[in-house]
Amino acid sequence: MAAQQITLQERPSGASVDEQIRLIAAGGAGDTCSSDLADAPWSFDQVPGYGPGSSMGDVIPAGAPRQGELPVRYRTASDEELTERIVAAKQTLGDRVVILGHFYQRDEVVQHADYVGDSFQLAQAAKAHPEAEAIVFCGVHFMAETADLLSGPTQKVILPNLAAGCSMADMADIDQVEDCWEQLADVLGDLDTPDEDGLLPVIPVTYMNSSAAIKGFVGRHGGIVCTSSNARTVLDWAFQRGRRVLFFPDQHLGRNTAKAMGVSLDQMPMWNPNRPLGGSSAEEIAEGRVILWHGFCSVHRRFTVDQIDKARAEHPGVRVIVHPESPMAVVDAADESGSTDVIRRAIEGATEPTTFAIGTEINLVQRLAAQNPQHEIFCLDPVVCPCSTMYRIHPGYLAWVLEGLVDGTVQNQIEVPDAVADPARVALERMLEAKPS
Ligand code: SF4
Predict the structure, then answer these.
(1) Domain shared by 29 and 160, yes or no
(2) Considering the domain boundaries, does residue 2 fall inside one?
(3) Is 340 touching ligand 1 by the criterion CB < 6 Å?
(4) Ligand 1 in reach of 20 Cβ (< 6 A)
(5) In what order do the strands lie in the sheet containing 376-379?
(6) Ligand 1 and 299: CB distance under 6 A
(7) Within a domain: residue 215?
(8) Domain of 280?
(9) Residue 293 pLDDT level (bands cut at 50, 70, 90)
C-alpha cells in the first residue's frame, strides 16, 4: 500500500530529529531539552515517568500503562536491519495490516506508514479499511482508542509501545471529571434538566486528546468531542444546547477558541481538579460561559512571545503560525494559528518563497522544512524537544508488532470496553454531524 495523501509521499532528505539529537548529544551545534533523547526508547520502558522530551516534568498517573521488555533481537538490530524487517513483514501481511503514522512521529517510523496525518484523519483512515485485520497506530494511546472506536468490531488496533500515552490526556482523569460534575451540580442544580429556554446548565466538551473514558462521559451527558480544526463549530453546537461549557483537557485550545468567539476572559473560570470547586468561586462558575479544565500540552506550552519577537527581529517578513494548544499570548502574537493540517496547508499553499516560524512539534516542523525547500521553515523553539510520548514509538517496536502479526500473535492491542465505547461513539458522531453556523 502506498502512503496516502493526507500525508507525505516520500521521506524528506534533511536530517531527521533523531539524527539531529544524536549530533547534539555528541557535542554538535544546537541544544536539546534532554540528551537522553539520543538513547533508544526501550531504555526508559522500566523507568517511571513519561521519559525524556517535553513531558518529562509532568506527573504521570500511577496506573499509566507500561511497556514490557522488547525482545533483545529488536533492541540490538541496526537501523537498516529494522527497516528491512518492517518492509518484509509489511509485504507478507499485505492488505491485512494498515500502518498509521501521526505527524509528530519520528521520520524513521513515518517512512513505513500507509497514512500520515493528525489524530482524527488517522482514525478516519482506520475506518476506511474494513478489510484490514490489524491497524498499527504509530501515535499515542488516546489515538489508538479512537481508532478502535471507529474501526470494525473484529479489527485489532495495535499501539507499538504501551508507554506512548499523552500527558495532556492524562490531566483529565475520569474520576476527577465525575467529581467535577458533582460539584458543578451543587452550584448549578440538576445538570440533566433543561431550563425554560430548553438549555442545559452545562455541556461537556472534550478535545479529541482525551481518553475513551472521558469521551464516554461526554457522550452520556449530552456532550461532544472536538478537534483543533473544528473547536469553534463544536462550541457553537454546545452553546445552542447549554448555558455554559465545561471544556477539557486543554485549557489553551478552550480559551483561544472561546476568546475568538467573543467570550470574555472573566467568563472563563479555571477548573483545577486538585482544588475545591476547581479553585473558582460559585459565582465565577455560575457566571462562566466556558469552564476551562487545568490541562495543557507540554510541547505547545514551550512556545513564547519572546520567541516570536526574536523570529521577527531576525527574519523580517517572517510568517508566524502556531498551534492553538499554545498559550493565548502566543496565539495572539502570532500571525496565524491552526491545527497541524492548517499549518501544513498554509505552507504548501504559499506561492512565493516565504520564511515560516512554526509553533508545533519539532518532527512535523522539520519534515515540512525538508519537503518544502522553496521556503525557509524553522521551529519557534530553538531547543530540540520532541513530544516525550510520541518519541516512545520506534522502528524496533514496529518491527516487533508486525512480525508478531506475521506469526499470528497480536501484541499491544488497544480495546475500549463496550460500556465506554457506545457513549464515546455518540459523542464522536455528534461532532461529525455538527455543522458550522
Ligand atoms: S504533542 Fe501534546 S497533546 Fe500531542 S501527544 Fe504529545 S503531549 Fe499529548
Answers:
(1) yes
(2) no
(3) no
(4) no
(5) 336-337, 319-322, 355-359, 376-379
(6) yes
(7) yes
(8) 172-295+420-433
(9) very high
